[in-house]
Amino acid sequence: MFSSTILDEAKIVIEECQTAGLRLATAESCTGGLVSGALTAVPGASAVFERGFVTYANAAKNAMLGVAPALIAAHGAVSEPVSRAMAEGALKRADVDLAVAVTGIAGPGGGSADKPVGLVHMAAARRGRETVHERHVYSGDRADIRRQSVADALRLLRRQVD
Question: What is the tally of structural domains in the chain?
Fold first, then answer.
């Protein structure tokens, strides 16, 4: 299901979290649980992986992660502030040390001039550190955009482990 590159990256995240004694969670929108799926494809992931939140709808972002509706209204669900709020909400709600969040427009529809198909915001939060954010604009079809998002979300997690 996942490429060897993504599985290798997920394995490194799991191993580095084990070494550092970190527990982690995910908060996903456009990836629909694929980041969690890549992590849990690694044998032994249960030692560090707590849970994944799939918050496709805005109401789910609010109910499950505590993302304020006003924040979504002001910036849109696909934005830096919302990705940061999702990661920080997962950190708090799952009571873990590290969380990654992904929100974007995987297409083929739903894009606009300001927010094209392929736009993805992701953030990683770690207790005691500043939340980091990345903005990507991927090309390809829906599967390509989601696959690239998973790979980059795993790399972003690694940045917060180091």
Answer: 1
